[in-house]
Amino acid sequence: MRRLLRKFLPDHDAIRTNRWLAPFENTLLHPRLWHLNRHSAAGAVAAGMFCGLIPGPLQMLGAAICAVIFRVNLPLAMLTTLYTNPFTIVPLYIVAFAIGQWALADDRQRFVAPPEPGDNGLLDWARAVIDWMLGLGTPLALGLLLLAAGLAVAGYFAVRLAWRIHLVRAWKRRSQRSGA
């Protein structure tokens, strides 16, 4: 499992040689941020799943901060945030809004479609999206928090379970080889 994940994750030498990250070298080169085991992988997936619902381009920054605070695998936490993308973000926000309405027991407010990108430019569209999110208010905010927490817990236990299944299968193969 570790070999499979290492193919896709950068090593910490890339951080050491990056001049933009040199001021943060002591923090970012902590060994636990780069070590890959079932604890750090599960924590990293949980951090990435939670931070993936942060609006805007702050998802990876949030995941990096969580990885540093909780000392879990940094690259995996940042990579996990990519489950939210232009194709999945609107359905996730619809689900979050529904969860927020359910948690508040408030069905008076209705979900309205997000604004379409127009000809006015990216900045005007970004303002329209922020206004749209603020218009949805408390149900969306609470729903995002609950959905993020639920996804983080589910991601944590899914990784722990998958790692355990992989280990049990490896043990069985090893015992079959030694017994044969």
Count the beta strands.
0
Approximate helicity band? 55-70%
Q: What is the alpha-carbon Rg in Å?
A: 20 Å
- Average residue pLDDT: 84
What spatial form do the alpha-carbon principal axes imply?
globular
Structural class: mainly alpha
Main β sheet profile: none
State the distance separating the first and last CA atoms. Answer: 25 Å
Number of helices: 8
Return the string of H and E elements: HHHHHHHH
Unreliable stretches (pLDDT < 50, length at least 5) are none
What is the count of structural domains? 1
Percent strand equals: under 5%
Explain the overall architecture.
It is a single chain. The chain is mainly α and 180 residues long. It has one domain. Helices cover 68% and strands 0% of the residues. The protein contains eight helices and no strands. Helix 4 (38-51) packs parallel to helix 6 (74-80) and helix 4 runs antiparallel to helix 8 (122-179). The longest helix has 58 residues, at 122-179. It is globular. The two termini are 25 Å apart. The mean pLDDT is 84.
